[in-house]
Structure formats: C-alpha cells, structure tokens
Amino acid sequence: MAVDYSLYLITDRHLVGTKDFFDSIAKALEGGVTLLQVREKDISSKEFYDISLKLKKIAHAYNVPLIINDRLDIALAVDADGLHIGQSDLPIDVVRKILGESKILGYSVSTIQEALYGQRMAADYLGAGAVFSTDSKADAGEAIGLEGLKKIVAAVSIPVVGIGGISISNINKVKSTGADGISLISAILSQEDTCKAAKELISLWKK
Amino acid sequence: MAVDYSLYLITDRHLVGTKDFFDSIAKALEGGVTLLQVREKDISSKEFYDISLKLKKIAHAYNVPLIINDRLDIALAVDADGLHIGQSDLPIDVVRKILGESKILGYSVSTIQEALYGQRMAADYLGAGAVFSTDSKADAGEAIGLEGLKKIVAAVSIPVVGIGGISISNINKVKSTGADGISLISAILSQEDTCKAAKELISLWKK
Ligand code: NI
C-alpha cells in the first residue's frame, strides 16, 4: 500500500457532533483523504480496539492506510498499517523493534533536533507542528509557524506532514514550505459535510 | 521465575501520599509482597514505560515477577513477566497471541462464566472480585462476596486471586474460600509503613 501523505485525517470522536462518527470518516475518505490516523483519548483499550478494527475496514475500502496513534498494542492487535508516536509516547527505538520494519512509523516533532532524531531512528515520516496555534490537544505546545515547518522540511529527507491549525484559509502557505502533506482534525470532522470539506482541501493542496 | 500469588500488590501512584512511590513499593516487597502489578491510569505512555522499567528492576531485586495492567505494549516494551487484563481491555485471545506463551497472563473476572472463559483462553490466573465493595476504581462493579469468590475458585483449575476490599480484618475469611492469594492496593500503599503492612498480611495469610 503506497503512502500518500497529502491529506492526512486524524480522528476525534468528540468532534463529529451529532453526525455519525464512522459515517463522517467514510465520507471524508470518499472526499479524498489519503491517510487515516485513529487518535482517541480517554477510552478503554477494548473500545479503542473495536473502533480501530472498524476504521481499518472503512479505510481499506478506500485503499487508504490506517495508522494508530500512540498505542503500539492496538496497532499490533488490529494489524494496522502503521503507528504514530509523539514525544510523550514509548521511545521510538523500542517501538520500531516491536512494530517491525514493514509498518509505517510516524513521529511528532516540533524542532529540527527532534526531526533529525526521528529520521535517525527510522521514522517513515514526521508530523511537524503545531504550524499554527490551536486549542486542539492534538498539537499542544507553542506554534512553530510556517518558518519552523520550512526548516524541518529542509533538514530531513523523509516526508514531513504539517499539523496544527491548518485549514482552507492557510493551505497555500503550508504548501509553499515544501511539506509533503497536511494533517487535519477539525477542518474536516467539525464540518457539516466531511466529504465536501475533504474534496476542497485536497483540490487546493493538489492545485 | 516461579509465581507465588499469596500477596499480590497493585500499584497506584496516587495512594502513597507524601511517601516516595518507589520507596513505598520497595519496602512492601521487603515486607513480603510476592507479586507486583503496575496499574497506573491517566498517564502518558512514556511515563508508564519509565515507571515500569524502574519497578521491574526493584521487583526483580526481590525475586518478584512484574505484571503490567492493561497495556500490552508496555509489557512488551519493558519485557515484563506478564500482563493483567480485564473485561474492558484488549480481547484475551488477541493478547495471548501477541504476548506469547511464556509470559504470565492474568484476567479479571466477576462471574463463573467469565472465569471459565478466561481459563479456556489460557489465562495463567484469575483476579476475582470485587470480593468486598470498595470505592477503588480497580475493582468496580457490585461485590461478588466471599460466596462468589468461593464459587469461582471451585469452578476453575487455575490460580484465583481475590481482589477488592481485602484487609487485615477479613483476610481469614478470604483464605477460607480456597483462593490462592489476595490482591491489594490501599491496604498496603496507604499505610504509613508499607513494609510492616505487607509483613502482617503475609504472615496472616500463611498462618
Ligand atoms: Ni476528544
């Protein structure tokens, strides 16, 4: 399964409002999401497992790889296509050993030092941010800005995805940094029509 | 490493008060704790990993096996001696496959049906409870009572450890059910002298 980092959707079951969670994600995939990450907090392992199994089926129906956030055990249990870890998760070298070489491993960074470390530790891609400041817990810490993203992109040879506060209004600026894709949560999931939102974002990104 | 289920301590970093967490556990091991489970909630994967690595070293210094609660990934990452899962964790069959046959696998049950299922799914031991009603989140749900524990012990051939509300005052009654051990949190960790508390409990249990 080839990896296209262009439009990377991260889940948050609390953001879909009254819409159906799985239906909202299926529609976003239909609209053009190219990569899907299950990122759920305050959830039992059983629920995380059940949701991930269901989303794997949905993602694969659209030929989109499924990545699990943080939880190596869930990634192994559902045989996901990859795992995304951050600075507060298990050490990347320990994770790579247990996950195996064939799975996609993503790593969250906000500095060039972290980016170079991730690349050295065999991350397949980096999630760099927060690009813009946001309230979302997914991308806490001070914003690195477009300049910070640009520097990280320039520092490594692996794909870099921008994350944090990215939307229709700033997508062109993010593209100009040379990043390989954009990672979004609310810019898709909070929208009334997640298919339309994904369609607009991917067409702007690919323009 | 032979497993002695007699005095099974479950951690909770929020219960040690002003005492040092690691010191309190080391002293409890010195007092006679025979099995140690790391059970920490609301914690990052990195912190869980760091705590578990440290407790593994401490437990092994006392020749006591280290069990991880819920998180299969942490158990794999620190190469723990085993994993304990409950009804809200990953499915036991999935866990056993990934964990391997050589590791200790514990399973929380409160009914005979769950106990028989756990035994059939190759659990090494069962944690049965809550024996007595308690406020601790570790053993939520209605109490099964001494009768409930006795029935579970009689129904399976693998070791059964009683959990929930067990203390000096009721230890003899729990012993009379035929259980292989007692699982405790606050009856040890909340005590001023965790060494003395463990010593009293194990001597009462072994009497
Ligand atoms: Ni949320």
From TrEMBL, chains A, B:
Pathway(s) annotated for this protein in UniProt: Cofactor biosynthesis; thiamine diphosphate biosynthesis; thiamine phosphate from 4-amino-2-methyl-5-diphosphomethylpyrimidine and 4-methyl-5-(2-phosphoethyl)-thiazole: step 1/1
Pfam families: TMP-TENI (PF02581)
A molecular function (GO) term: magnesium ion binding
GO biological process, alphabetically ordered: thiamine biosynthetic process; thiamine diphosphate biosynthetic process
Catalyzed reactions per annotation: 2-[(2R,5Z)-2-carboxy-4-methylthiazol-5(2H)-ylidene]ethyl phosphate + 4-amino-2-methyl-5-(diphosphooxymethyl)pyrimidine + 2 H(+) = thiamine phosphate + CO2 + diphosphate; 4-methyl-5-(2-phosphooxyethyl)-thiazole + 4-amino-2-methyl-5-(diphosphooxymethyl)pyrimidine + H(+) = thiamine phosphate + diphosphate; 2-(2-carboxy-4-methylthiazol-5-yl)ethyl phosphate + 4-amino-2-methyl-5-(diphosphooxymethyl)pyrimidine + 2 H(+) = thiamine phosphate + CO2 + diphosphate
Thiamine phosphate synthase/TenI domain span: 7-188
Cofactor binding summary note: Binds 1 Mg(2+) ion per subunit.
Enzyme class, broadest EC rank: transferase
GO-annotated cellular components: cytoplasm
Keywords: Magnesium, Metal-binding, Thiamine biosynthesis, Transferase
Cofactor: Mg(2+)
Binding site for 2-[(2R,5Z)-2-carboxy-4-methylthiazol-5(2H)-ylidene]ethyl phosphate: T134, D135, S136, G165, I185, S186
Binding site for Mg(2+): D70, D89
Chain sites annotated for binding 4-amino-2-methyl-5-(diphosphooxymethyl)pyrimidine: Q37, V38, R39, E40, K41, N69, S108, K137
Domain of life: Bacteria
EC number from the UniProt entry: 2.5.1.3
SUPFAM superfamilies (UniProt xref): Thiamin phosphate synthase
Purpose of the protein: Condenses 4-methyl-5-(beta-hydroxyethyl)thiazole monophosphate (THZ-P) and 2-methyl-4-amino-5-hydroxymethyl pyrimidine pyrophosphate (HMP-PP) to form thiamine monophosphate (TMP).
HAMAP family: TMP_synthase (MF_00097)
Family classification: Belongs to the thiamine-phosphate synthase family.
Name of the featured protein: Thiamine-phosphate synthase
